Amino acid sequence: xxxxxxxxxxxxxxxxxxxxxxxxxxxxxxxxxxxxxxxxxxxxxxxxxxxxxxxxxxxxxxxxxxxxxxxxxxxxxxxxxxxxxxxxxxxxxxxxxxxxxxxxxxxxxxxxxxxxxxxxxxxxxxxxxxxxxxxxxxxxxxxxxxxxxxxxxxxxxxxxxxxxxxxxxxxxxxxxxxxxxxxxxxxxxxxxxxxxxxxxxxxxxxxxxxxxxxxxxxxxxxxxxxx
Length: 227
Hints:
This protein has helices at 3-7, 26-38, 49-58, 82-88, 111-120, 132-140, 165-174, 188-197, 206-209, 211-224; strands at 11-15, 43-47, 63-66, 95-99, 124-128, 145-147, 179-182, 201-204. Strand 7, helix 8 (188-197) and strand 8 (201-204) form a beta-alpha-beta unit. Helix 2 packs across helix 3 (49-58). Strands 1-2-3-4-5-6-7-8 form an eight-stranded parallel β-barrel, surrounded by seven helices. The chain is α/β, with parallel strands linked by helices. The radius of gyration is 17 Å and the shape is globular.
């Protein structure tokens, strides 16, 4: 069974913690991935070479690998250049995800060149998109998967507090490659709705792996009680 078949119809758990977050540690991300696997996750999305390598030691699940890195000349920070792709190709990640928006990339690098680089390395390429137009363009560029990861996170995409199921459905109807729902998922019912709609799989992150945000939902509820 290949990597795509393994993640079909399931939940991929995003195990990430940025340097300023309390769980920032490759060891901890590996343990989070193990917990996710024990809970039935079919794959892991992970950031940085160190985290991916540690996670692969802990679980035998497909990994969607990314590298988040800020550049002064671009808003793009998810696997932004050939440098990040090259680093990810040194890991066991089966899928490499990158910003698939139309925004200018650092140094003016062309998106199609990064897709070719990923394919030359024998990996699958996933486009993190924010609009239907970007998803259609990503398919034309040869991406193997398309996700809604950046919906609501670009200045021009629609802002929603929950997953943009309308956008998801529109993308599913327009493209032939697998479509992944990711972003703003915080309720199991949203996963059910997305898969019934035709999503290939669903990526769930913060509501599972960022305890400070999970805790805040409950403490905000306590404050709302006015006591």
